[in-house]
Amino acid sequence: MSMSARPAILVCGVLAALAFATAAPAQNAGKKALVQKIVQLQQAELENLARSIVERPAAQMLQEAGIALQRQVAPEKRDAMGKAIDAEAKKYVDESYPLVRERALRIAPATVGAVLEEKMSEDELKVLLAWLESPVYKKYQQLGPELRTGFIQKLLAESQPVVDPKVQALDGRIRVILGLPPAQREPGAAASGPGPRPTPAKATGK
Question: Percent of the chain beyond pLDDT 70?
Fold first, then answer.
């Protein structure tokens, strides 16, 4: 290779490097814009996750409180105390959910968005965004509650004959451990457990 050819090659290399350096920020900016739109479209899901995080401990505490009411509180006082506990749980959800929701929406770009930007190409992000914005996806989201309800109802119906005998066996073993007599139940009825089992109230901030 002649000496005169080398500067031309170096110039071409420099120009190519400059072109790549110019294209890379533009491509990153395009990906960032796509990721931002995708995260915004997922806001409802992020809010649902935030609500679930807030309501889970409240639901657990309400369940435990319901058991304590049945075991330790006189019957004539249970209703008033139960309502007071429900009111406190609702107040907790109403106060806590906005705080967790704000944080969920704030950290989403740096967590969910960062993963999308790193793991998916710009073309893949475009396809994903088109799907999320499509009428088909929106209709699928609207059908979500109906799909879940139908599935859960069918699953419960299919599972009950298999699970009920195991629940009754567990009930019997727990009663033996606690020194309680066997439960008296109608034929075919599910086990009620070793003691009173109230239906716990649900914390709702809606």
Answer: 76
